[in-house]
Amino acid sequence: MPTRPLTVAQECDEQRRTFEYNLEPLRQYPGALAAWMYGHKPTDKLDYGMCYNDREWLKRKIAIDNWKKTTSPACQKHFRDEDARYSYRGKPETIAEEIARYNEACSHTMAGTL
Predict the structure, then answer these.
(1) What's the superkingdom here (predicted)?
(2) How many CB atoms lie within 10 A of CB 97?
(3) What are the b/e assignments for 31-48, b being 16+ CB within 10 Å?
(4) End-to-end C-alpha distance for the chain, whole angstroms
(5) How do residues 15-57 score in pLDDT, each as one tens digit?
(6) Which parts of the chain fold into alpha helices (H)?
(7) Residue 6 CB coordination number (10 Å)
């Protein structure tokens, strides 16, 4: 049975999945959220485990965002359209805003800043 050729959106999504799969595994500080929630008040500053996990997620998000910006123009358009389509909840936080929030919340820990 002949297969239909993939659309641009399907090809771009497949390339993104492949890229994300080939990134190094996400390292996480085990049990950080539970430990922080049980040992701190909501107004306390984040501890090392929470900041470490946030930093690892941000590094991964930055790598994916950089990859999206360097793919083919057709895929760049697809990803921009996709982001616009899913931003119905309000303007999403940009990577720069997330980095600034992380740096403010975690500069006091050994996890450091980005």
Answers:
(1) Bacteria
(2) 11
(3) ebeeebeeeeeeeeebbe
(4) 51
(5) 999 999 999 888 888 888 888 888 888 778 888 888 899 999 9
(6) 8-22, 32-39, 48-70, 73-85, 95-106
(7) 11
- Cα–Cα distance list, 87 to 16, 42, 81, 82, 94 (Å): 19, 28, 10, 9, 12
Residue with tokens 């799969």: 21
Other Cβ atoms closer than 10 A to 2: 4
When pLDDT is averaged across residues 68-89 and rounded to a whole number, the result is: 86
What tokens appear for 64 in the block?
A: 């994916």
Q: Output the six-digit token pair for 9.
A: 């959106």
Within 13 Å, how many C-alpha atoms sit on residue 43's CB side? 0
